[in-house]
Amino acid sequence: MALRTIADVGEFAFLSRLLPRLRAGRGTVVGPGQDCAVIECGGRWLFTIDALVEGVHFESGWLAPRQIGRKSLLINASDIAAMGGQPRFCVVNLGVPPSYPVRDLHALQRGIVAAAARCGASVVGGNLTRAARLSVSIALLGAAPRRLVTRQGARPGDRIYVTGTLGDAALAVRHLSAGRAGKLPVHVLRRFREPTPRLHAGRILVESGIVSAMIDVSDGLHQDLGHVCTQSRVGAAVRVDQMPLSRAYRALLGADPWLALQGGEDYELLCTIPERHVKKLKGLHARLACPITCIGEIIAGRRIQLRDDRGLITHVEASGFDHFRMRRRQGS
Ligand SMILES: [Mg+2]
Q1: Cα of 84 to ligand 1 centre, how many Å?
Q2: Which of the chain's ends, N or C, has fewer CB atoms near its CB within 10 Å?
Q3: pTM, two decimal places
Q4: Residue 57, φ and ψ in degrees, nearest 5
């Protein structure tokens, strides 16, 4: 009989079995399953790791070497943003094919260092290994805020908010895959190539004390909201007609929200806010320095309802990108 593979089981089913078996050692404040672990070690820290792999997250020619470096760091910083922290130190592992030009490796490394510096972090070590395809893994430590916000605090009645706009990075991937990137405005391609972690907004939202749960939208709104629902043991009603879509997205796809729902790599923040705090959020708008839009409400139950102005469209289960089921090509 053939051995079951990780593709048979799927990323999330595998993780849901693995994580409960990991014993939290001394100094673990929040263990696995969140955007970052929280550890106590001469202060309180957020700890996270992520990777960019050629052939999985990007294809050759989609990103300049410097952009690969930048993006590897920025997707990690987005996890720190999701818990309101401040990036500080990182270590880098580069997996590099022997044929990779040294010039490009320098550019890639400069991309990492520059992006780290811009986030207030420094590269303090790393490793270089031969690999079949290019991959960059970064482990990032961030200073933790005084308040802890995880994916677990959402309650029925809380409003669901997202920063910025959704779907542009997925739109860029769709065009890059089809060899039609030239037809997209540069700023849309930039949403894929140079994501902006919402560090400032994340910090303000957490410090304000009004947020009950938060996550960054890396694998698609549908799936990441699904993580909040699963971990908070609630459901959600999303108004798809109120999802924030960019002008470029609307110009190409009209009001069709599906790519914005299912796409990935937005690196925006999704948070839930109890109704009694919604007024306070209005007072914070100017300080956030980015748009924030209410897209629905947490409800009892375990499913995500998609609604428009005429009512219920459909129920969906939490899904999106599973690395080993390959429903989509992108995501992280
Ligand atoms: Mg995340």
Answers
A1: 12
A2: N
A3: 0.91
A4: -95, -20
Chain centre distance of CA 323: 14
Nearest to 201 by CA among 163, 239, 244: 163
Cα of 78 vs centre of ligand 1, distance in Å, is: 7
* Distance from the alpha carbon of residue 175 to the mean position of ligand 1, in angstroms: 24
CA distance 9 to 161: 32
Q: How far is 84 from 78, CA to CA, in rounded Å?
A: 10
Nearest to 244, CA basis, from 224, 221, 227? 221
Choose the weakest-confidence range: 127-136, 165-174, 183-192, 304-313. Answer: 304-313
First to last CA, the chain: 32
214 CA to centre of ligand 1 in angstroms: 10
- Confidence band of 325 (pLDDT split at 50, 70, 90): low
Cα of 202 vs centre of ligand 1, distance in Å, is 12
